TrEMBL record, chain A:
The chain crosses the membrane at residues 21-41, 284-303, 339-360, 380-404, 425-446, 670-690, 722-741, 756-779. It comes from Mucilaginibacter arboris. Residues 20-237 form the MacB-like periplasmic core domain. The keyword Cell cycle does not apply. One of its GO terms (cellular component) is plasma membrane. It is found in: Cell membrane. This is FtsX-like permease family protein. Residues 288-406, 674-782 form the ABC3 transporter permease C-terminal domain. GO terms for molecular function: transmembrane transporter activity. The keyword Cell membrane applies.
From TrEMBL, chain B:
GO terms for molecular function: ATP binding; ATP hydrolysis activity; transmembrane transporter activity. It comes from Mucilaginibacter arboris. Residues 5-225 form the ABC transporter domain. PANTHER family: ABC TRANSPORTER ATP-BINDING PROTEIN YTRE, IMPORT ATP-BINDING PROTEIN. CDD domains: ABC_MJ0796_LolCDE_FtsE. Belongs to the ABC transporter superfamily. Macrolide exporter (TC 3.A.1.122) family. This is ATP-binding cassette domain-containing protein.
Length: 793, 225
């Protein structure tokens, strides 16, 4: 029996090649899109879950309340971890990590290790990062102990064992001993490092007393709780703990932190405390919806095409019933056929997926999977999904087909019912609703990208080369030396450039009422040339000037946001007001117009700007657009002359600023691709339906032509019904897309408005594609000789 | 074998009710060859469908081998049908995707006969119908006469007690038609009961008895043998 089913299934597929192709390719594309999105989502959800103790590890974060605002920090102060460990037996262990930019050197090999961390010795006990060589208990215990990842070790030592060897940390003027070799940290970890330096190096050497500093932030703290500990209960004990240990200082500084525990596995997707660098659960949800819809569209095609073809299978059903088939047997046969088609589609989709995976990795900007078979479970799941689709999508056609009355179908009195037709129309509407919604969304995502790129940022970012001197003692000499180079139009130095990080400082500023108001202000350290070079607009007061000696120690410039924060309505009102920041006291000498020093996703925050040569490590160089390579070569020569120990590297500010939109860019591109997938599958379905519809109406078309209908009349007749469906779909899709994209745009502090033309464009686009799809069949039918088509009856 | 009494069948559309069978009573004995004749729309095909358990009556009684089957559900009807009744249609009704052999094999599959036994029985019947050499061909590759022989082979492969033939020669030329009628006669001689609906007086003469129908009722019954 089964053999018979297989036989008939394969022969039916072969006899109706176009139909089989449309069905299988449609399903395969749907499955491929679903599978790739599934891999992506799985990857996004897998962050940090590879740690065996992940369910007991929590990140400590804090909300710091000042009289002006509440700062959502991604860390507690340095002292919290060790003090909490002493006080709470629930805490089994803790790890602190802190960013360290290291210039590492071995003989002539030197690298600026951007990805380096100071880490507590418990790093390998709390986390499951694998130490290939060295003792995980002790490797980070002593000062000047360094652990390298495999990639880092290869750079310095090739294939020889690095453990026991020495590396020089040039800018710190010391040597560190390699005490371990660790496996490269997996991509799906929010902690990333190529080099680990033991925490005592920082707390006992570079910054003594850090362990007891309650007002100093800048480390990420992870707690490993004992089994059975309720994090909420522990969290509730923190306020009293802080009060006991740090109450006095809190009152003095008027900064009141509250500590929270974030489950490690949720940090990447759910925490909003790390800026835009981390994952985004909303995007994950959006992709889940897109994946499910694409798969549904493909399934609808399948159901539609199969039921549309039911007239052709009716005779077979009749015969089988006459010779003794029970309804259930027939239903099983048709579901079986549907499963076979789905399994063929599965095989094709596996092929498609493995071909597209490298492209998809590139598109998503991370290696979500090296190979589709890296986790055998996933293709197996797709296999199960294929079978489920076969069963689910097969049930409706099977029920329809197996319900045919043999006498009706064998006597040729069979017509497909209006119920089936309505259902097919309904499914086409849903398919196009999804496709049009995706087109609208894609246009809006791209609009937003354009908006962010074309927005006036309030500063000049063109032809600006940035070089990090990392605090080298020759940095000022370097700046001097390159200023006179041909091709260099201006130079400036600063601690931060737009798009990068900057310090946040505990500050007190005289507010409109005359009180010294406490606030945490973003802080830019600059030199005298920075404001003119970046073309920041002075609204009141003046820019820093070498003419005022006190500018290096007693002057501050704020932006409009800061001015408003302290209650002033006009820029000139804040000029001359007092400030007290990190021990520096003085007056505000100027107000700059707000400029976007972070991405347009964020509101422009209150910013203070001060002259502080010691912290100005970044050189901004405006260069002439002519002969850029030779200008850069000349700059490099000066660098080598003055800082021979440091590797030369640079970046352009516009690229650097743009990097902040990389994840949105990827999001947009992924969206575009899946919108194309969705519309392609929908059109395949439409093509199939149009072809069956014209076949069924062959006689009608023949009669109409005999009665005098022209080719355009027929074309109109055949296209109208499908175009009506697409139009209806548009009216369903437009408000849905508007709603979701309106919500999505709220992620951006500065966003485009949704224009009416977006909807018109998407609607026309869908209509044009649908019309092109249908026309092919319609023209063929309209041009057919009516004598021939009438004879077929 | 068949006894129907006061059988009724009414077709309803939105505004019209058509009585296809109007208190029809007929009896067919085992081993008989009966031809049913009458003008189009007289109800002969409806009768055949009810006899073949493809359709159910709206009233009256239908005894098949002494069992009342008029109100059997679809599953029971399918079961009774596959064990006892073979069909031959005017338009052959072979499955295009299956070969001659596979078409004939189909009823045996639904009867649950094992593959070796099926092969044996199909070969015997194909041999008898003289289409063994065409066993691996598809229906479209055969002439009308050959297709109808395959259909007859399929109808008899499970040795049914009753064969229902609905204008079996309607789509054939006279020589092929005669061949098919000859086949049916032979089957009848071997003990199979045959009820045949036909428009052809020529074909009807192969039967033992002709039932003539008009407006859902029997008009006359002529005994030929």
């Amino acid at each position: 029996m089964i053999k018979n089913y297989f036989k008939i299934a394969f022969r039916t597929l072969l006899n109706h090649k176009a139909f089989s192709f449309i069905n299988i390719i449609g399903l395969a594309i749907g499955m491929t899109a679903f599978f790739l999105i599934f891999l992506y989502i799985k990857f996004e959800l897998s962050y940090d879950s590879f740690h065996s103790k992940a369910d007991r590890i929590y990140r400590v974060v804090s909300d710091i309340k000042t009289p002006t605002e509440t700062i959502n920090a991604n860390c507690p102060s340095w002292a919290v971890a060790s003090h909490a460990k002493q006080e709470f037996p629930e805490i089994e262990s803790f790890v602190r990590v802190s960013n360290a930019r290291l210039l590492v050197r071995k003989g002539n090999i030197k690298f600026q290790e951007e990805n380096s961390l100071f880490a507590d010795s418990s790093f390998f006990q709390v986390f499951d990062f694998k130490l290939l060589k060295g003792n995980p208990q002790t490797a980070l215990k002593e000062k000047f102990s360094i652990i390298l990842s495999q990639t880092a070790a290869k750079k310095y030592f090739g294939d020889t064992n690095p453990v026991g060897q020495t590396l020089s940390l040039t800018d710190r003027n010391l040597n560190a001993v390699v005490t371990g070799l660790m496996q490269d940290i997996p991509e799906n970890s929010q902690i990333k490092a190529d080099v680990l330096l033991s925490m005592p190096t920082l707390t006992n050497e570079f910054n003594k007393g850090l362990d007891d500093q309650w007002g100093n932030y800048g480390n990420r703290t992870y707690l490993l709780l004992r089994p059975g500990t309720e994090p909420k209960v522990l969290e509730a004990k923190f306020p009293a703990f802080l009060e006991r240990r740090n109450g006095k200082e809190m009152k003095q500084s008027q900064m009141y932190p509250t500590l929270f525990l974030e489950p490690l596995r949720e940090v990447y997707l759910y925490s909003t405390r790390d800026g835009s660098k981390t994952g985004n659960i909303t995007n994950v949800y959006i992709f889940i919806i897109v994946a499910v819809f694409i798969l549904l569209i493909a399934c609808f095609n399948f159901v539609n095409l199969t039921t549309a073809r039911s007239a052709e299978r009716a005779k077979e059903v009749g015969i089988r019933k006459v010779v003794g088939a029970a309804r259930l047997q027939l239903a099983k046969q048709f579901i079986g056929e549907s499963i076979i088609i789905c399994l063929i589609a599965f095989a094709v989709s596996i092929l498609f997926s493995s071909l597209l995976l490298p492209l998809f990795n590139q598109l998503s900007g991370k290696v979500i999977s090296r190979h589709i078979f890296s986790h055998l479970l996933y293709p197996f799941l797709l296999f199960l999904i294929a079978i489920s689709i076969g069963i689910l999508a097969g049930i409706y056609p099977a029920l329809i087909l197996s319900s045919f009355q043999p006498i009706v179908v064998l006597k040729g009195r069979f017509t497909t019912g209006t119920k089936g037709l309505l259902m097919r129309k309904g499914l086409v509407i849903i398919q196009f609703t999804v496709s049009i919604a995706l087109i609208i969304s894609t246009i809006i995502v791209y609009n937003q990208m354009n908006y962010m790129r074309s927005q006036d940022l309030g500063f000049n970012k063109d032809h600006k080369l940035i070089i990090d001197t990392d605090g080298d003692s020759s940095k000022s000499a370097f700046k001097q030396a390159i200023t006179s180079l041909a091709g260099v139009t201006s130079t400036a130095m600063a601690g931060s450039v737009p798009g990068g990080g900057n310090a946040g400082a505990y500050s007190q500023i005289e507010n409109v009422k005359g009180d010294m108001q406490v606030a945490n202000l973003d802080l830019y350290f600059v030199d005298f040339d920075y404001i003119p070079q970046y073309k920041l607009k002075i609204l009141a007061g003046r820019a820093f000037s070498r003419d005022f000696q006190t500018d290096t120690s007693q002057a501050m410039i704020v932006n409009e946001a800061a001015m408003k924060m302290f209650g002033y309505t006009l820029p000139k009102q804040i000029i001359g007001k007092k400030f007290d920041q990190w021990g520096r006291k003085g007056v505000i000498v100027g107000v700059v117009k707000d400029f976007h020093f972070r991405s347009l996703q964020e509101v422009i925050k209150p910013l203070s700007i001060r002259i502080e040569p010691n912290f100005c490590n970044l050189v901004s160089i405006n260069i002439n657009s002519k002969n850029i390579p030779s200008t850069i070569a000349a700059i490099e020569n000066k660098w080598k002359e003055l800082m021979p120990n440091r590797p030369f590297s640079y970046y352009f500010l516009d690229d650097f600023f743009d990097k902040q939109y990389r994840s949105e860019d990827r999001f947009g591109r992924l969206f575009l691709n899946f919108a194309v997938f969705a519309i392609f599958i929908s059109c395949l379905g439409l093509l199939g339906l149009a072809s069956y519809s014209t076949t069924q109406r062959t006689k009608e078309i023949g009669i109409r032509k005999v009665m005098g209908a022209s080719v355009p009349n027929i074309l109109n007749l055949l296209s109208k019904e499908f175009l009506k469906l697409v139009t209806l779909a548009f009216f369903v899709a437009a408000p849905i897309a508007w709603y979701f994209m309106h919500k999505w745009l709220q992620n951006f502090a500065y966003h485009t408005t949704i224009n009416w033309w977006v909807f018109v464009a998407a609607g026309f686009c869908a209509l044009a594609i649908a019309l092109a799809t249908i026309s092919f069949q319609a023209i063929k039918a309209a041009l057919a000789n009516p004598v021939k088509s009438l004879r077929t009856e | 074998m068949i006894k129907i009494t006061e059988l009724e069948k009414i077709y309803r559309t939105e505004d019209i009710e058509t009585s296809a069978l109007n208190k029809l009573s007929i009896e067919v004995k085992e081993g008989e060859f009966v031809a049913v004749m009458g003008p189009s729309g007289c109800g002969k095909s409806t009768l055949l469908n009810i006899l073949g358990l493809l359709d159910d009556p709206d009233g009256g009684s239908f005894m098949f081998n002494g069992i009342e089957v008029a109100h059997f559900n679809e599953r029971k009807r399918a079961d009774l049908r596959k064990r006892n009744i073979g069909f031959v249609f005017q338009s052959f009704n072979l499955i295009d995707e299956l070969t001659v052999f596979e078409n004939v094999e189909l009823p045996l599959i639904y009867l649950g006969v094992d593959s070796a036994e099926r092969k044996k029985r199909v070969e015997v019947v194909l041999d008898k119908m003289q289409i063994m050499h065409r066993r691996n061909h598809f229906p479209q590759q055969l002439s009308g006469g050959q297709q109808q022989r395959v259909a007859v082979a399929r109808a008899v492969v499970n040795n049914p007690k009753l064969i229902l033939a609905d204008e079996p020669t309607g789509n054939l030329d006279s020589s092929n038609g005669n061949e098919v009628m000859q086949l049916l006669t032979e089957l009848n001689e071997q003990g199979t009961t045959i009820v045949m609906v036909t428009h052809s007086e020529h074909d009807a003469r192969y039967s033992h008895r002709i039932i003539r129908m008009l407006d859902g009722q029997t008009v006359t019954e002529n005994l030929l043998v």
